[in-house]
């Protein structure tokens, strides 16, 4: 046990003397939190629209005004010519062309059900679906009002049909940053610790000090644990800095038990560090270590549910995320912070992460060879 | 355990694929002896040493270091040997004292013992003034002597020195050899490789390795007679052509 203390002490001295690590632990997470939480947004905040009004009636103009009045929609141009409108789509200056046919009002009054056409630039699927959704909602409400106006005597106005009222739980204001910040926090912690640990043992190999360590009777587990504990501390500091920053900057909700979150975070960092050390054992140079680490990081981040929900992945991909410690971390971070989940709600994340921690660290100890 | 030999090696061999780096070397080193392990670059010296100190598994043959088998008991060997590699291997970003403490610590010395050793090393090497300086700031000669002292922080029976005097000035080399003699006088065995033939003359016995094999092994005096040479330099050149 005493021997372990000497290794940990030495690692800490080296970490403190390393001028790059302190900013990495403080400035980096805050900058990333601010930039990513705001910028990495799937929210569609602006839809550019071209209106082709071939009717020029009172009704068509009312619809036109309704569209312009929406603050998420920008009217790029109005046109009488469909071809001209297509040009805007092609130029990417417009996301949607809305075509109101001639005789729209007349047909409407005569009960002929005129058709409004939306031409949507679907290069970006998300933008297309959400944008056309906005417009459909506007047309629907316009439709309802028009029916009342045109056919006031019909008792539709009494609205005897079902209405839906939604209330948004856990994030009532639908703030995107509340959703992103906890995820990015988790991603940052995992990313930094995996890189630091992957680089560390390789560096000793490059410098040659590992050979000196290997001729001592030091046990393999002592060596791995001696590396793991200091980096665990760094990871926890980083996570704490991140939580405080998110609270101060975005006022993220902290509904759950922070002790539970930190408990899980500790377990998760241990798992990720195990992987980092495992990578370290197989790489001969720091360059190799970084490349291998990046391979995992990219898969982990893109399949973590940070940007795209895991539920909308194909079944096989969903199953793969069980092996992704970052996916569990993000899930737990969101659940505990936003929903106030307790241990029972995140038991599977705990279980999976525990298994991963065991496998990664086991392999790290096993693959660390004192003898070649 | 009660053999007079610190190192016993019998037909020790290391192959890397088809290449035979060390080809069935056989020799014995007595306790308290200064044994010079010479050879040209690429002759297989470092590979041989790595097998002796338990860093590399032998392909064939038998080796006993301090009574322990190199193949099956490398961790026991490690408690009883010190090793200073040709690549400088202290931590540059730790101070002199921190390096001593760290290595003392991982050899499992007690806190009190580490303290004693620290004072002893600092005084012996006259490093007290720079004890709190980072090792990176020391001149190479000082670093090498410190590395030597640290490789013996746990008072091993045998110490392996792989080109310890490479790149240091003649004065430091002299100090180095004085230390080696002191170590040997205390009954410890010194196993040393070098490219300086004047240093070879200081050894009790010398082996010369050529292309993975030991081609000559005797006292410097006898080797010179055997090869009808006036200096070890000549002996070496005659063998390692």
From TrEMBL, chain A:
Alphabetical keyword list: Cell membrane, Membrane, Transmembrane, Transmembrane helix, Transport
Membrane topology annotation: Multi-pass membrane protein
Record-linked PROSITE patterns: ABC_TM2
Cell compartments where the protein resides: Cell membrane
Principal location class: membrane
Domain of life: Bacteria
Entry keyword Chloroplast: no
Pfam families: ABC2_membrane_3
Residue ranges of domain ABC transmembrane type-2 in the record: 136-371
TM stretches of this protein: 179-202, 223-246, 258-278, 290-310, 350-368
Cited InterPro entries: ABC-2_transporter_component, ABC2_TM, ABC2_TM_bact-type
PANTHER family: MEMBRANE COMPONENT OF ABC TRANSPORTER YHHJ-RELATED, MULTIDRUG ABC TRANSPORTER PERMEASE YBHS-RELATED
Family: Belongs to the ABC-2 integral membrane protein family.
Protein name in the entry: ABC transporter permease
From TrEMBL, chain B:
Molecular function, one GO term: ATP binding
PROSITE patterns in the record: ABC_TRANSPORTER_2
Record's keyword terms, sorted: ATP-binding, Nucleotide-binding
InterPro entries: AAA+_ATPase, ABC_transporter-like_ATP-bd, P-loop_NTPase
Record Pfam families: ABC_tran
ABC transporter domain segment(s): 7-236
Matching SUPFAM superfamilies: P-loop containing nucleoside triphosphate hydrolases (SSF52540)
Alphabetized SMART domains for the sequence: AAA
PANTHER family membership: ABC TRANSPORTER G FAMILY MEMBER 20 ISOFORM X1, ATP-BINDING CASSETTE, SUB-FAMILY H, MEMBER 1
Name of the featured protein: ABC transporter ATP-binding protein
Species per Swiss-Prot/TrEMBL record: Flavivirga jejuensis
